[in-house]
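User: Round two. Same drill as before: sequence, then structure, for each protein.

Assistant: Same drill it is. First protein:
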Amino acid sequence: MKNNEQLLERIHQLEMKNKALEQAGAFNTLILNGLEAILASSNTDELFKDFFSILQRTISFSAAILVKYNPNTESYSMLKASKENAEKVLPELIAILSIQPNIKNIFELRKLTKWQIDDIFWQQQHSLLTAPVTTNKKQYQLFVFSEKQGAFNQKDVSLLQQFISFTGNTISQFEQKSLQQRQQNIEQTLINSEKMASLGQMAAGVAHEINNPLSYVISNIHNLAHNIQQHTNLIKDLVKPQFQSTRAINERLEHYQFDELTQDTSDILSEMKEGANRVKEIVQSLKLFAHPNQTKIDDINLTSLLENTLRVAWNQIKYNATIERYYCADEIKLIGRTTQLYQVFLNIFINAAQSLSNSVGMIAVTTTQDSYNAYITISDNGCGIPADKLNSIFDPFFTTKPIGKGTGLGLAISRAIIEQHNGKISVQSKPGEGTVFSITLPKNSDLNDEELTIIALKEKNDD
């Protein structure tokens, strides 16, 4: 007898376990289908439509309605329905909500005094399963109908509870996705603003750098005009009858100091060309840096990239530092986004110059390479960075500069750019001795078209 009782108990346990497994299997199927819907849907409307069909595979029902609650007006509005003309029953559903604010299994709708429907389809609905769906930002209420009286059992209630929990979390993810999109848009604005702030900071200096060679070109135009006039006068004299003899010609050439005049004209033209090229180089470097298309992938000559950046930053550097260049003898070629890498090196050069603001120091640029990577180090012998701040310098909005002197985004953006290029950036520094930035960039990086991000990248690195 005892053995029989034990056997019956064992059978009961197995039955309970089997039911639990069946329910778990049903819910797992629900979740898997839900995940497929998430991947396939681009907005919440598509997601809700898919969720109705997903729920239909697990819980048998004839109609489903989702309404949204507006806490500001304390009102409900129709969001999604699996059947047409669902708006006809919205007043009755709102009335039911005032009675049943939580999950509730209603066996017979017709017994509710507030359920007075003229539409034939909705008159045929006997059972109702309703539950609130809450997300990070919004509140919804789900209604599931059946034409059968008492159609929904405890298993259906349990599955619905799990389903709405999953639904709420999923919608929250979609809301979060929207927030992340807005965050990315804000970040792109911040990134572009930081770049424009750097350009604004250098604008006066760049104007000065351009003004010097331009002034020299303009002043030499007058000298060149004078020399041309002298050449013209000489030619006019030489065609006169009295200057036909060799002696007379030589005397006239000597009078106009022809050799010196010719050499001076050649020197003027050479200097004007040099000044014009200097202006051209500055403008081209500035144009490359300011270009809005940061996602264009180019073949990059690393030495040219660094030299162009130094040219743009020169007015910020020249009063505080001398530049020591230790470039690799062999050409280093990369694949990357030129404007973004300009932004990285410009930020580091300007920071180095600012660390030397109270003295005249040195900035050294070194490049090396191996078969796979390019290596760049930029060092200075400036004031250095305190040890307690060194681990935070790549964090967004962190700055050691006085208020109003820095955004705190420059190095965060620099790190984001380097890591988006599948590279690495690190820093070593000692107060009073200087700072060294070390950058590794793959020469053949497999770049994607993802938006540059600085906040999410920080969170990834924190993990």
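Second protein:
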Amino acid sequence: MEEKQHVYIIGSKGIPAHYGGFETFVEQLTSHQVDKRIQYHVACMTENSEKSDINQKHFEYNHAKCFNIDVPKIGPARAIYYDVLALNFAIQLAKVNRDKHPIFYVLACRIGPFIGRMKKRIEALGGRLFVNPDGHEWLRAKWAYPVRRYWKYSERLMVKHADLLICDSQTIENYIQETYRSYEPETTYLAYGTDLEKSELDESDSEVREWYQENDVSLREYYLVVGRFVPENNYETVIREFMKSETTKDLVLITNNEQHGYYTKLRKETAFDSDPRIKFVGTVYNQELLKYIREHAFAYIHGHEVGGTNPSLLEAMALTKLNLLLDVGFNREVGRNSAVYWKKNGTLHQMITGLDSPLEELMTLKGLKKPEHIDTEFSWETIVASYEDLLMKF
């Protein structure tokens, strides 16, 4: 019987996935698995599993062996504690199972201060530590200064102890190589993936008609923003610029703004509620409906500037014809010559005003190419095949 390559995945809330980039990644990695020589083990938060009516400590999903971790609600440090508990449990599990050369793949750099001791235990098993450094978490505005300092310190220690850093953005890989040159980090670039299939819904479906009617939105007569409602996604810049534009189209924002202090602050500072074109419509959990909304937007506006290959941007590039992206390295490496780029210098409103023309004319005028690289480089099938090749090399 052929020896399995055991891979323990730590750092997502778990599968079945209910939300989140890392959760979707683990769901896709396991559901698209082709090489059966790999045995995935996935750490899950108990509360995530309970959403799918899974109450056992150990369960199987997508042929992955999953284990639930109970995490007390201790505030901001909860995610750190979860990763520590999950990695310790995984190391013990690999020891009991007598796995040969197990790989422990930790998603994000939350547990740097604790990783040194755990790395020794991994080495004692003949195992290796892989890390996905995620994005620049230490730049996120939601964190107080001491927390940002922790994130940066933790990142440094994770880089120092990792046997391999898997970066889902070339910009992040370059940053790791340049910033931590003294550690001579071993890195590789493996992108995030996206679903390339068009929506199964059409204009006559009830959920489509109801959503557009309820939100007073017309097909192809709106700019779209989708993403987490956080300052580093530049909602303020996008809203202020849109308000200054002369477009008659709407700005539809699909985000978790409900009962959010940042929403109140933005409304007070920009008075966006005085502009009927600006429409916060909450979240859309129906993925087929969300695809349809993306497909039938006039254009997508992407203001994310912190992070790796952003899932929302990949989905936009796959489904929305015209994409206006903030001009940062993360976005350029995905958009390439298939998108239009804007800077935070107060000229986005002029771009929007100048875009009030038929879409096909605009695409020709801007010299935009079809984003064929999304199909070839960012499909989940391609990403998973690359992961399997990598995991079987070690």
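The first strand starts at residue 5 and ends at 10.

User: Perfect.
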